[in-house]
C-alpha cells in the first residue's frame, strides 16, 4: 500500500450518487473534515457529505470566471492561469492545512470539482499530497429525471452538463491513479464496490469491516426516487450512455479507461466542431436569464422607476435572442443537408451553400432591425443604449461564427465539386479507352474469323484430296492390279 498522504477527489455529475458513496467511504475510515454541509429536506435528507469550504472555493471561482454550477459552457481557455484560479489554489492549501494536516487518507466530494481537476492536481502537488480520483457514474436517465425534479432542468441541459463533467474530468485526470464505479454497484454490493475502490486506488480502508452495520443502515434503497432499467441499445446511442455502460461492465480500471479513451476521441471532435456554437447560444440564454430575473424581481426604487421602459425593451431583446436561435437552427439544418449532399457527390451542393449564405444574411437583417427597435426603445438612456450596443456586438460575434461555418461548408462544396469533376473527367477518359479497346477487339475478332474461315476451307480441301486417294487405292485392290 502507498505510504504517502493521500487525497481522494470524488468526481461525478450532480445527482449521480456521489453523496451516498462518499458517506460509505467515510464510514470505512476516510476523513471528510469537520465542516460538512447539513442535510437538506427534499434534496439530500441523508446529507451531502461535502466540505463547506470546498464548495465555497468552487462557487467563488465559478462566479469569478463567469460561470455557475449548472453552466454547460466550457471553462474559459486560460482559466487555470487566472487570478480566480490563483486565489482558489491558495484557499485549497489553507483547507488542507486547517482540516487535513494530520490525515493520512482524506477525501473531498463536490460535483463542481469535475470542472476543477487541473486546479486540485496543481494545488495538492504543491503541498506534497498524492491525489487519486474516484469517478461515480449513474444511469443518465436517472440523472436527468432527478435534476428535472429538483431544479426543473431539461433533459438536453442535463445531458450536456453531464458530458462536460465527465469528459473534462476524465481528460484532466489522465496519467493519475483513478477508479470508476457506478451508483448501482454501490447499492447492489457495497462491499464489492469498496473492495474494488481500495484495490484500484491502492488504498487501505481501515473500517471496512467495523463500519458494516452503519453502512447497511445508511444505504436506504427506498430513498432512491428514480430508477431506470438499463436499455443497452438506447444507452449505446449516446456518449453519456456508453460511458455508463463501460463503468457497469468493465472488469477493472484498465479496461474502463481504455474504452473511455476511444469515447474521448469522439468528444474531442464534438468540442472542436460543435461546442463553439453551443457556447454562443448558451451565452444568449445567459443574457435571457439575467433579463428574466430583472423583469421578475425589480429590487430598488430606481429600477421600478425605469420599469415601464425596460419591459418592452426586454421583450425586444428576447425577440433578438429567439431570432438568433431560430436562425442558427436553420443554419445547422442547412449544414447537415449540405454534408449529406457532399457525401454522395451531388453537384447541387454549391447551390445549397448559397442557401446557407441567404440564411445568414436574413438573420443579420432581421437582428439589425430588432437592434434599431431596441435603440429607439432605450431613448435617451445612455446606460440602456450602451447595453444594447454591447449585446449587438455579442450577437455580431455569433453571426461571424455562423458565417465562418457557411464559408467552411462552401469550401467543402467547392472541393466536392472539384473532386466530382475530376472523377467525371477520369471516367470519361476511361470510357474512351474502353471504347478504343472494344474497337480494337472487334477488328481482331474479324481477323480471327477470316483466318478461321480460310483454315476451314483448307481442311475441307485436304479432306477431299484424302478421300480421292483412298478411293483410288480401294479400286486398285478390288481389280487386283
Spatial extent as radius of gyration: 37 Å
The SSE order reads: EHHHEHEHHEHHHHHHHHHHH
Number of helices: 17
Number of strands: 4
Query: What's the number of domains?
Result: 2
* Top CATH class of the largest domain: Alpha Beta
CATH topology (level 3) name of the largest domain = Rossmann fold
Q: What is the helix content?
A: 55-70%
CATH architecture of the largest domain: 3-Layer(aba) Sandwich
**Poorly predicted segments:** 299-316, 338-349
Strand count, sense and closure of the main sheet? 4 strands, parallel
Structural class: mainly alpha
- The global form is extended
Strand content: under 5%
With strands numbered from the N-terminus, the spatial order across the biggest sheet is 2-1-3-4
The oligomeric status of these chains comes to: single chain
| End-to-end distance | 123 Å
Mean pLDDT: 76
Organism: Tahibacter aquaticus
Keywords: Transferase
GO molecular function: transferase activity
Protein name: Sulfotransferase family protein
Structure characterization notes:
- The protein is mainly alpha-helical.
- The protein has 2 domains: 268 residues, Rossmann fold (3-Layer(aba) Sandwich), CATH 3.40.50; 149 residues.
- Helix content is 69%, strand content 5%.
- The chain contains 17 helices and 4 strands.
- Strands 2-1-3-4 form a 4-stranded parallel β-sheet, with helices on both faces.
- About 6% of the residues have low confidence.
Amino acid at each position: 500500500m502507498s505510504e504517502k498522504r493521500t487525497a481522494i477527489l470524488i468526481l461525478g455529475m450532480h445527482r449521480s450518487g456521489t453523496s451516498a458513496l462518499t458517506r460509505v467511504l467515510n464510514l470505512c475510515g476516510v476523513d471528510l473534515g469537520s465542516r460538512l454541509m447539513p442535510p437538506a429536506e427534499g434534496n439530500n435528507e441523508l446529507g451531502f457529505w461535502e466540505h463547506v469550504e470546498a464548495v465555497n472555493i468552487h462557487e467563488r471561482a465559478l462566479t469569478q470566471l463567469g460561470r455557475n454550477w449548472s453552466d454547460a459552457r466550457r471553462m474559459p481557455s486560460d482559466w487555470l492561469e487566472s487570478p480566480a484560479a490563483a486565489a482558489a489554489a491558495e484557499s485549497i492549501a489553507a483547507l488542507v492545512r486547517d482540516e487535513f494536516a494530520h490525515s493520512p487518507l482524506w477525501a473531498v466530494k463536490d460535483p463542481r470539482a469535475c470542472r476543477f481537476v487541473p486546479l486540485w492536481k496543481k494545488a495538492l502537488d504543491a503541498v506534497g499530497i498524492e491525489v487519486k480520483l474516484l469517478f461515480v457514474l449513474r444511469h443518465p436517465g436517472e440523472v436527468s429525471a432527478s435534476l428535472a425534479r429538483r431544479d426543473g432542468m431539461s433533459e438536453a441541459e442535463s445531458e450536456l452538463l453531464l458530458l462536460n463533467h465527465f469528459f473534462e474530468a476524465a481528460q484532466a485526470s489522465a496519467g493519475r491513479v483513478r477508479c470508476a464505479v457506478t451508483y448501482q454497484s454501490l447499492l447492489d454490493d457495497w462491499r464489492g464496490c469498496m473492495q474494488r475502490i481500495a484495490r484500484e486506488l491502492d488504498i487501505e480502508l481501515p473500517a471496512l469491516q467495523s463500519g458494516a452495520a452503519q453502512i447497511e443502515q445508511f444505504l436506504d434503497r427506498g430513498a432512491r426516487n428514480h430508477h431506470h432499467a438499463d436499455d443497452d441499445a438506447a444507452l449505446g446511442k449516446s456518449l453519456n450512455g456508453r460511458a455508463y455502460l463501460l463503468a457497469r461492465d468493465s472488469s477493472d480500471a484498465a479496461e474502463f479507461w481504455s474504452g473511455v479513451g476511444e469515447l474521448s476521441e469522439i468528444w474531442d471532435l464534438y468540442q472542436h466542431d460543435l461546442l463553439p456554437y453551443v457556447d454562443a447560444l448558451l451565452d444568449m440564454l445567459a443574457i435571457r436569464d439575467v433579463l428574466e430575473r430583472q423583469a421578475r424581481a425589480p429590487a430598488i426604487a430606481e429600477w421600478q422607476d425605469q420599469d415601464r421602459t425596460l419591459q418592452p425593451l426586454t421583450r425586444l431583446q428576447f425577440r433578438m435572442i429567439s431570432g438568433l436561435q431560430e436562425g442558427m437552427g436553420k443554419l445547422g439544418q442547412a449544414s447537415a443537408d449540405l454534408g449529406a449532399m457532399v457525401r454522395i457527390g451531388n453537384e447541387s451542393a454549391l447551390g445549397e451553400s448559397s442557401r446557407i449564405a441567404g440564411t445568414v444574411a436574413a438573420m443579420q437583417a432581421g437582428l439589425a432591425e430588432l437592434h434599431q427597435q431596441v435603440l429607439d426603445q432605450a431613448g435617451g438612456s445612455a446606460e440602456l443604449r450602451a447595453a444594447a450596443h454591447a449585446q449587438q456586438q455579442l450577437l455580431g460575434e455569433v453571426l461571424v461564427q455562423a458565417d465562418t461555418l457557411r464559408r467552411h461548408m462552401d469550401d467543402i462544396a467547392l472541393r466536392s465539386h472539384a473532386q466530382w469533376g475530376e472523377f467525371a473527367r477520369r471516367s470519361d477518359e476511361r470510357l474512351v479507352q474502353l471504347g478504343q479497346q472494344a474497337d480494337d477487339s472487334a477488328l481482331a475478332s474479324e481477323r480471327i474469323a477470316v483466318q478461321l474461315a480460310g483454315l476451314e476451307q483448307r481442311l475441307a480441301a485436304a479432306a477431299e484430296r484424302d478421300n480421292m486417294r483412298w478411293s483410288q487405292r480401294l479400286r486398285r485392290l478390288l481389280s487386283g492390279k
